[in-house]
Design brief:
The complex is a heterodimer of chains A (309) and B (243). Chain A has 2 domains: 220 residues, Rossmann fold (3-Layer(aba) Sandwich), CATH 3.40.50.300; 69 residues, Alpha-Beta Plaits, CATH 3.30.70. Helices cover 36% and strands 28% of the residues of chain A. In chain A, the strands form 3 sheets. Chain A has a 6-stranded mixed sheet, with helices on both faces. Chain A has a 4-stranded antiparallel sheet with strand order 2-1-4-5, with helices on one face. In chain A, strand 4 and strand 5 form a beta hairpin. In chain A, helix 3 crosses helix 4 and helix 3 packs parallel to helix 5. Chain B is mainly alpha-helical and 243 residues long. Chain B is globular. The chains are: A alpha/beta (309), B mainly alpha (243).
Chain lengths: 309, 243
């Protein structure tokens, strides 16, 4: 379990992180969602004992990051946003050295693990290529591979799929889930909505160094009142009355433009059959139905008043 | 960590080969020619220069660790290294030791050539001279780390380190005897750590005698700069100044 208790980090006059409190359970995948400069990397570097918090406390599996940093370092592995690899080393050397430094595996076991991960990430053919000669995507995969091969108790990924193409993104997500299934606690910092939504069991929204909200993606979406939009097109809307649908407690607003009805609601998927039924029994013929669900983008906008770039 | 720094050397063997060749050319062309022009009773300048050039080279190579550390901090590799499960103390000692070992390994082929030129008195002469070189390398590594973690601007860092390298190497008895130096150099040259190492190595190789004051000077240099380097580095890494 990881606990941030009013943790803060101040650089000169700037509060990169302020009064940050959250508890991350064992074996969960937590998404840290926030724009660039929100403080996500600072949070991770404090947890990884690179930065010292200037206020509050952070403990990792009961070890304080300031008082027992050596114990904390044994538990954590961090894959950085920008690949932090010796350019002169090949992918296979980078991973082998990382394993040598972080585990007690013998040479044979290290070689086996490195081969498995490189093959899984489609890097096997390029295993001997020096990393400075690799493309941005390949380097990023090598950075992720360090943690995927290490399999630490607490795996931290900073923007794990930045620079990656779609098949590679799906592959990395799958391998991160496997890591969690094997017992690791996973923290993924991202500014990509789909990544946070698809990968995380819980999303913590971070903005300007503060924790804004922390729930499951579904719970967060539920907090956006009337965030879903149901668009109905009737064959004749002249007799339609908005109050007909306002009787449902999940409906927050109804707007009409000629034959087109827009219903702002929550739990749209569940409510849709009831609305269709209500309109049909009143004699309305429905020509088309379209439901736009709440996205994490809407959630972020609701909580922070700004769009995630 | 020490092994990591040492292995850097072997990843670029062409650097060792070209620098080695440059050393041989410098010795057997430049030093050989110059020694023909310098005729001082009781002094074989070729032999004098041969030892001095090895000592100056090891000092120069030992400064490289500072560039490595500065570059790692700039490129963010230091963040990664600091997340690895090793204590800060081990980290710092490892870096200093790695820098010194790297310099010694680099210099060994050149040193052996010089030892044969000098007609070393006995195997202990070689060990004793190597000890002096190692002490110099360790101290210079500490000095280089001190500068790397104290100076924030890259340009300033380059200038400071280059000046320091020039001062300790050129203002020393490595390449020319103190008797021929202008006054403003001869005042400081006896106190240069490169002078300590050069005098001590010469004493060891020719006739195997220990230059105890020079060795004491080297030990003091190591203690001061390794201590300073470690303290500054530790403070920067654990005290939050680094962040």
């Amino acid at each position: 379990m990881i606990t941030f208790d009013n943790a803060g980090k101040r650089f000169g006059n700037l509060d990169a992180v302020k009064d940050f409190s959250i508890t991350i359970k064992d074996g969960e995948i937590l998404g840290l969602l926030g724009p660039n400069g929100a403080g996500k990397t600072t949070l991770m570097l404090m947890m990884g004992t690179v930065y010292r918090p200037t206020s509050g406390t952070i403990s990792v599996n009961g070890y304080d990051v300031v008082k027992q940093p050596n114990e904390v370092r044994k538990l954590i592995g961090i894959a950085f946003q920008d690949p932090r690899v010796d350019g002169i080393l090949s992918a296979s050397d980078v991973l082998n050295w990382h394993l040598k430094m972080t585990t007690l595996f013998d040479k044979v076991e290290r070689r086996r693990r490195v081969e498995d991960v490189l093959k899984s990430l489609d890097l096997w053919e390029a295993r001997k290529k020096r990393t400075w000669l690799m493309s941005g995507g390949m380097k990023k995969k090598v950075e992720d591979a360090k943690i995927l091969v290490q399999r630490p108790s607490i795996a931290v990924f900073d923007e794990p799929t930045a620079f990656l193409d779609v098949p590679s993104r799906l592959l990395v997500w799958k391998m991160i889930r496997q890591l969690r299934d094997e017992g690791s606690t996973v923290i993924v910092a991202t500014n990509m909505m789909d990544e946070a939504e698809r990968l995380s069991e819980r999303v913590a929204i971070v903005n300007k160094g503060r924790l804004v909200a922390s729930e499951t993606p579904e719970q967060l979406k539920g907090t956006v009142k009337g965030g879903e939009v149901l668009e109905l097109t009737l064959n004749d809307g002249s007799e339609f009355k908005a109050d007909l649908l306002r009787e449902f407690p999940e409906v927050h607003d109804v707007k009409q433009q000629d034959n087109k009805i827009m219903v702002f609601l929550n739990s749209g998927t569940l409510l849709l059959p009831k609305i269709v039924d209500t309109l049909s029994t009143r004699g309305f013929k429905i020509e088309s139905v379209r439901l736009k669900e709440v996205s994490l983008e809407d959630v972020f906008l609701t909580y922070t008043g700004q769009r995630l770039e | 960590m020490a092994l990591r720094d040492v292995s850097v050397l072997f990843r670029t063997p062409w650097i060792i080969i070209t620098r080695g060749l440059a050393f041989v050319i410098q010795l057997f062309v430049f030093a050989y020619l110059i020694s023909g022009l310098i005729l001082v009773p009781g002094l074989n300048f070729f032999q004098y220069y041969a030892v001095g050039s090895v000592v100056a080279t090891i000092a120069s190579i030992s400064f490289v660790i500072g560039y490595d550390i500065f570059e790692e901090a700039e490129e963010g590799v230091l963040d990664y290294l600091l997340t690895l499960p090793i204590s800060r103390r081990q980290f710092i000692i490892g870096r200093a030791l790695g820098g010194a070992l790297r310099a010694i390994i680099y210099i060994i082929p050149m040193f052996l050539v010089v030892a044969f030129i000098e007609g070393f008195a006995q195997p202990l002469s070689i060990l004793s001279a190597l000890l002096s070189l190692f002490l110099l390398a360790f101290g210079v590594t500490g000095m280089s780390i001190t500068v790397a973690v104290s100076v924030k601007s890259a340009n300033r860092f380059d200038v400071v380190l280059a000046l320091l390298e020039l001062a300790v190497s050129r203002g020393s008895t490595a390449l020319y005897p103190i008797a021929f130096m202008p006054l403003y150099v001869s005042v400081f040259a006896p106190f240069s750590p490169v002078s300590f190492a050069a005098d001590s190595a010469r004493a060891s190789l020719v006739g195997f005698s220990l230059d105890l004051p020079a060795i004491a000077g080297l030990v003091a240099f190591v203690v001061v700069f390794l201590g300073l380097g470690a303290a500054f580095y530790f403070r920067r890494l654990e005290g939050g100044i680094y962040s």
